[in-house]
User: What shape does this take?
Amino acid sequence: MTNTNKNTHRDFPCLSLASCSCGFTMLELIIVIVILGILGSMGAEFISQAFKGFKDTGNRIEMYEEGRLALTRLERELQGAVPNAVDVSSVESGNSNALSFGVINESAMAGVSGRYEEEHPSGQAVIKDISGMLAAQAIVSIYNTSWDAFATAAGNSLYRVTSVDGTTRVMTLNRAIDRVSPYQRYFVVRPQAVRFVVSGGRIFRETATVNPGGALGAFAGRFPLVDHVVPSDPDGYFFYLPGTSTRSSLVVVHFAIDRDGEVVNFHKEIKIRNVP
Assistant: This one.
């Protein structure tokens, strides 16, 4: 009888673990581990850089939005500044880090023309609006020519309406008018002036009480608008160029936000009215 299993071990040499020579050598295993380690390290670095890029982009967007909102707030208020009632000064540092200004009360101006009928009311304590009248206690500015005329007692251009006559539209002021507008113009003023100041790496908004005929009150009530602020111009953060007969007044704002190694610069030029 023929033995059909004669060549079994020759056809299948690895059926026995003891006699099997198949598998990886130690060197091959080390090479594979090294290659996998290199690939894993490269992959981890790629993923790390991708996440860092996302984080840096997010930081820049956040910084841009914070700076933009602060500039929008500043621009919106500054565009309603009382003509010539703008001051750039140094507070708590050696450069121009404070911007102060009086603000027109636009809601009160909605009911009047902003022009009085009298051509030469100097020395008088009454004015009459061409089309309407203000409420008592309103503050008006007549021919403001400088920050000092707005914020100090000397040559003060601010008056308070003490009483009104509903029939004649005559508005009685708290004192006689010192000087008159060549355009017979007046502006209603908010009872609080505004100041934006950079201090301790932040931009703050402050207010001060307006005193018709007297000095401006002290600025207080700091409200933070943006953090991590640094100068982007060696001369300061705010600059004021008074208006001329051919151009409007101009306020220039420079600052940067520096956070987590990222720096975003901001620059804004804001035109304001300068004809009192």
Remarks:
- The chain has one domain: 59-272.
- The radius of gyration is 37 Å.
- The longest strand covers residues 249-259.
